[in-house]
Specification:
Helices cover 38% and strands 0% of the residues. It has five helices and no strands. It is globular. The two termini are 23 Å apart. Helix 2 runs antiparallel to helix 4. The chain is mainly alpha-helical and 149 residues long. It has a domain of 101 residues: Transferase(Phosphotransferase) domain 1 (Transferase(Phosphotransferase), domain 1).
């Protein structure tokens, strides 16, 4: 979910770009954005940003993947993913720009800015909504009910 939607309820054409960036980083890493909750104080976006800043972007790659034919291509995809998840919609590229970046491997890419959600994680109180720990869904699908304020 893009920061502008999560914090202000605003949806923009750049919200989909944010979601694409998260998806791209999930594909590269082989991990879901939410899979970091139990093992690390960072989530995938923060972890990717941390590795990128330390010039260790290759560590983000899913270890089950074969070695990429070009490390520069993988680092380029990480850069594009980080450009897509920047905090402010105006800083993110448009989807047509993203497609152009993916197709033109020799065009220089701008440096990404730090994602909004990179420094902390949301601590979820799992006991707040349910009084017991039973599994309420066999397929992990939930249904939300909308109530008036």
């Amino acid at each position: 979910m893009s920061p502008e939607y999560a914090m202000e309820g605003r949806f923009s054409i750049k919200s989909d770009v944010f979601s694409f960036g998260v998806l791209l980083l999930e594909i590269i890493s082989g991990k879901k954005n939410s899979s970091f909750y139990d093992s690390d104080p960072l989530h995938l976006l923060g972890y990717a940003w941390k590795l990128w800043n330390a010039d260790r972007g290759m560590e983000l790659m899913d270890p089950t993947l074969d070695n990429p034919s070009s490390t520069s291509t993988l680092l380029r995809y990480i850069n594009i993913g980080l450009l897509c998840i920047q905090g402010y919609p105006d800083d993110r590229p448009t989807m047509s720009d993203v497609v152009s970046m993916l197709n033109n491997e020799y065009a220089p890419l701008p440096k990404p800015k730090e994602p909004t959600f990179s420094l902390c994680r949301l601590v979820v109180n799992t006991n707040a909504s349910f009084s017991n720990n039973e599994n309420h869904s066999i397929n992990t699908v939930t249904i939300s009910e909308i109530e008036a304020r």
